[in-house]
Write the structure tokens for this entry.
Amino acid sequence: MSKILDQLPYSDAIGRPVVCGEEVSVHAHQIIVWVSLSARDSLQLAEDAPKIPAILDTGNTFGFSIAEQQLVRWCGMQPRSLETLGPVLINNQRLNRHSADVWLHPNQPKRRDSFRREPPFRLELRDGIVLFREQRSLVSGLICGTFAAFAAAGFKEMRKPQPLTVEDELDDEQPQ
Amino acid sequence: MTSIYLTEEQRRVVTAEHGRPIGVIDPATDQAYVLIDEQQFERVRNLIERPIENSPTLPEEQARVPPGIRRSQEGYWRDLPELLTLKSSDRRWVAYHGFERVAFGRTSAEVYHECVHRRALKKDEIYIDRMEPRALPPWEAEEIEAPFAHGEALLESGPRSAS
């Protein structure tokens, strides 16, 4: 059994991780994981794929969502390059699901922003990702990954209370 | 603005709805429209016509499900009851090209690779999904309740005060 998230810490203070050279603020108690995005036909993640922080929203039942602006600015991807798969209603807001893969970067034990030298784990999201339109600001918005996505990926164990540990039941069979 | 004239049958439906919005579907493309009266339209006209500056937002026609993917989704949905009986450790994902089942695999990446790189199928004509139950067809909108409203600034650039 291989660990993906290992004793991932979260803080009771505001945090300021750096994304693509840009400092962002993370609210206290938000669980942050680092992910990368790719087109769905990528067999493996490009080494230079940007890592972006994702809020692990434990109450959200959809897999992953990101603002179009952030997809462009942080991931260097264009919305039109991701095929539309269908609609979804999130809090009565009609949005589109798009074909893409999300890769989860294993953290060093007890460290949130340092990574183990292991390949990222592909979260195989059957419904793709949601792109939402954040028009108030070019920089603010919501990224969220969810436990629902982890469960769909077949993760065996998720212990939420700090420190967070997520283990993969597929062991060496993890998809790449 | 171009105008089209209602048939007698359509006029009766409009009258019966007493000003409520009416769904109109083009059977050739499945494109849905909403028919509202002119007074209602004028109230929302600014919202519809307002340009969005510096936005990468997809134009509406690009945000629609490509017809090829939609047909393949219908193939998947038609066969899903059977697919559930075929599921195994080597058959967790399935790909459809129209109504034809073209690949099984352990991972979506494996199936995608088979379709796009080995069979040279077009990405906008295939649909890949897990061989697991779905509550709704893939083209219908599932309702999700999220604790945080989308668009709420939870992750912000720049300095932020604790207040």
Q: What stands out?
A: The helical segments of chain B are 8-17, 38-49, 60-63, 67-86, 108-118. Strands of chain B lie at 22-25, 32-35, 93-97, 100-105, 126-130, 142-144, 155-157.
